[in-house]
């Protein structure tokens, strides 16, 4: 009997990507609209990707099979 392959959760795959060291990368929220209320510094920092901490990486890593 063949083992059934685990499917990738597509919702997770669209939002996170894995780095070379195995960490998960994500985008920041609060950047899509109402930008005129935010300072230039806020918008600049929101442009950069963030990494998830170890706990979330462990849990979400099970749903990302790549």
Structure description:
This protein is an alpha+beta fold. It has one domain (10-61): Factor Xa Inhibitor. It has 3 helices and 3 strands; from the N terminus they run αββαβα. It has helices at 10-15, 40-47, 54-61, and strands at 17-18, 24-26, 50-51. The chain has a 3-stranded antiparallel sheet with strand order 1-2-3. Strand 1 and strand 2 form a beta hairpin. The longest helix is centred in the middle third of the chain and has 8 residues, at 40-47. The model has no long low-confidence stretch (mean pLDDT 90).
What would a concise description of this structure say?
The chain has 66 residues and is α+β, with helices and mostly antiparallel strands. It is 33% helix and 11% strand.
Helix tally equals: 3
Order of secondary-structure elements = HEEHEH
* Residue runs with pLDDT of under 50 for 5 or more positions: none
How many independent structural domains?
A: 1
Which secondary-structure class do the elements indicate? alpha+beta
**Strand-residue fraction?**
5-15%
CATH architecture heading: Irregular
In spatial order, strands of the major sheet run 1-2-3
According to CATH, what is the class?
Few Secondary Structures
Largest sheet: 3 strands, antiparallel
What is the mean predicted local confidence, pLDDT?
90
Note the gap between the termini.
24 Å
* Global geometry: elongated
What's the gyration radius in Å? 16 Å
List the helices and strands and how they pair.
Blueprint lengths: L9 H6 L1 E2 L5 E3 L13 H8 L2 E2 L2 H8 L5
Antiparallel strand pairs: 1-2, 2-3
């Amino acid at each position: 009997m063949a083992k059934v392959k685990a499917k990738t959760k597509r919702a997770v795959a669209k939002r996170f990507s894995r780095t070379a060291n195995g960490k998960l990368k994500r985008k920041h929220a609060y950047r899509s609209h109402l930008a005129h209320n935010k300072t230039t510094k806020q918008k600049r920092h929101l442009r950069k990707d963030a990494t998830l901490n170890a706990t979330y990486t462990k849990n979400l890593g099970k749903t990302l099979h790549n």
